[in-house]
Design brief:
388 residues; alpha+beta; FAD/NAD(P)-binding domain; D-Amino Acid Oxidase, Chain A, domain 2; 2 domains; 8-stranded mixed β-sheet; 19 strands; 37% helix; 30% strand; globular; binds arabino-flavin-adenine dinucleotide; binds P-hydroxybenzoic acid
Length: 388
């Protein structure tokens, strides 16, 4: 098989990149390790930055997002018994949209299928060759047959555990990582959200987040030690922990019900600063991971896609200058979202090694945020999304 851009990975990054390139008349073949249903069964991000919404509009797939997504003009911060609001609209003139990653992925799969773009699911043994030459190849097993795609460029959109980053010689990869000593236990429940906006809450029992997918589907998280397993947490234990970690007004309004999804996600910060190797370009979780505290994982995949698709479109007309600048441009924004995600995580979670002094500084930081419009504007600018 022959194409201009081979996209490895059918998550949001690969699908959005493929759709934007298609709109510019650039041919792609997308290969995905899992079935489409499996990809769509993943419950992940829930908040879209303004830039992500703009890209979905540019990709021509924002119809359902605008019909069913929930514009949010602010967010609540719980600090112990207190709760205060950060008004995005007043402070930045922008908002975020609550619309699940699952729905984003569904819309992109449907658009790709409607355009008849080649998409191969359940591929295996994916290997990348000739990345430093003019015509790299990607080989893989598909439907029991070994297949080869020859292409001009490879987009590594295969997430943290995919083969693309590993295809870069280890001695050439510049990687940095920070592992947090806790995870997030998340549940999905068919209950009305406790509040019309998200609540990020820091209490003496630890962090909790109240989010949602729609008026009858809530998404909640509590911080748990990394040693915990999902089976350690009954629904009753989860609801008791959540109630204890959010301000009383919210706790009293909480409607509980059976979980329809329950999982623990570890928290880590990771950046592979080598986002290009020859004609391979890393994009999204393949290159970087953030703790979900700032809702930046999916949204930083989108900013990579923005830079990469513009650069590939130019390169396919012979101008490779933007491709040469891709890694530097993408990384500049990656590090801003890394910093914000780290800062939100430090601000709101309890760390096992914290001293009494550390906890008082953390409480003072929350008080400063509650009282300072400048501090709230700084958070709001990052949360709604910095310009691309
Ligand atoms: P993805 O991992 O979504 O997609 C990569 C795709 O590549 C996958 O479909 C995978 O099957 C495929 N792939 C892997 N190996 C392959 C191979 N060898 N061949 C072909 N395909 C291959 N972000 C937030 O903003 N908020 C959240 O609340 C949040 N929660 C999360 C919870 C969990 C458990 C995880 C893991 C992540 C969460 N994230 C969250 C981050 C997440 O949303 C990512 O940022 C987002 O999925 C990034 O999209 P992609 O880069 O497309 O990577
Ligand atoms: C979610 O709704 O899943 C969500 C929202 C905000 C975050 C993380 C997760 O920071």
């Amino acid at each position: 098989m022959r194409t201009q851009v081979c996209i490895i990975g059918g998550g949001p990054a690969g699908l959005l990149l493929g759709q934007l390139l298609h709109r510019r008349g650039i041919e792609t073949i997308l290969i995905e390790r899992k079935s489409r249903d499996y990809v769509l069964s993943r419950i992940r991000a829930g908040v879209l930055e303004r830039g992500f919404v703009g890209l979905m509009e540019e990709a021509g797939v924002a119809g359902r997002l605008h019909r069913e997504g929930y514009p949010h003009d602010g967010v609540m911060i719980g600090a112990g018994a207190e709760m205060f609001r950060i008004d995005f609209a007043k402070l930045t003139g922008h908002r975020v949209t609550v619309y699940g990653q699952t729905e984003v992925t569904r819309d992109l799969y449907e658009a790709r299928e409607a355009a008849g773009l080649p998409t191969l699911h359940e591929v295996d043994e994916v290997a990348l060759q000739g990345l430093e030459g003019a015509s790299p190849t990607v080989t893989f097993l598909h439907e029991g047959e070994r297949k080869t795609i020859r292409c001009d460029y490879v987009a590594g959109c295969d997430g943290f555990h995919g083969p693309s980053r590993q295809a870069i010689p280890e001695e050439k990869r510049r990687e940095v990582e920070k592992v947090y000593p806790f995870g997030w236990l998340g549940i999905l429940s068919e209950t009305p959200p406790v509040h019309e906006e998200l609540i990020y809450s820091s209490s003496k029992e630890g962090f909790a987040l109240c989010s949602m997918r729609n008026e009858t589907l809530s998404r909640y998280y509590v911080q748990v030690p990394m040693s915990d397993r999902v089976e350690d947490w009954s629904d009753a234990r989860f609801w008791a922990a959540l109630r204890a970690r959010i301000p009383a007004g919210a706790a009293d309004a909480l409607v509980t019900g059976p979980s329809i999804e329950k999982s623990i996600a570890p928290l880590r910060s990771f950046v592979c600063e080598t986002m290009r190797w020859g004609r391979l370009f890393l994009c999204g979780d393949a290159a970087h991971i953030v703790p979900p505290t700032g809702a930046k994982g999916l949204n930083t995949a989108a900013s990579d896609v923005y830079y990469l698709y513009e650069a590939l479109a130019a390169a396919c007309t012979g101008d490779e200058a933007a491709l040469d600048a891709y890694a530097e441009k993408a990384l500049a924004r990656v590090w801003k979202t890394q910093r914000f995600s780290w800062w939100m995580t430090q601000l709101l979670h309890h760390f096992p090694e914290q001293t009494a002094y550390d906890r008082r500084v953390q409480a003072a930081e929350l008080t400063f945020l509650a009282e300072s419009e400048a501090a709230q504007k700084a958070l709001a600018e990052q949360y709604v999304g910095l310009p691309y």
